[in-house]
């Protein structure tokens, strides 16, 4: 009986594992993309960060500025994604069984996950910005 049951759900189980793997891959690619963008932003704003540090900004304020910018960009992206998902929800309704097309708790969890991922991806460029020496930043060679 267990073999018959396992065979009957094998295809659906495979599809769910495949969808989950693609979801994790999308999350990793998003984190790498945010890291790349924030690293570029930090490198382009090296002089600005150096001036801020020279004028008395603490390294933690610089880190907060970089992370705030990443979280803002992630929030804008998540909001746009939620609007797009809400507009496409009626098309997906026929493919969902026992789950509403728009689940508020799931979308809230996803929103938090994406913003947390973007914030964590901005930590490395933020730490790099914290260590910028003001003299070198203001006089690039």
What is this structure's SSE topology?
Layout: H1 2-44, H2 46-54, H3 59-92, H4 104-121, H5 123-130, H6 134-138
Give structural notes.
- The chain is mainly α and 141 residues long.
- The protein has helices spanning 2-44, 46-54, 59-92, 104-121, 123-130, 134-138.
- The radius of gyration is 22 Å and the shape is elongated.
- The model has no long low-confidence stretch (mean pLDDT 85).
The whole-angstrom Rg is: 22 Å
Number of helices: 6
**Termini Cα gap:** 74 Å
Largest sheet: none
User: Residue ranges: pLDDT <50 for 5 or more in a row?
Assistant: none
Helical percentage: over 70%
What amount of the residues lies in strands? Answer: under 5%
Overall pLDDT, averaged? 85
Order of helices and strands: HHHHHH
Shape: elongated
- Strand-pairing-aware structural class: mainly alpha
Number of strands: 0
Brief overview:
This protein has helices at residues 2-44, 46-54, 59-92, 104-121, 123-130, 134-138. It is mainly α and 141 residues long.
List the keywords.
141 residues, mainly alpha, 6 helices, 83% helix, elongated
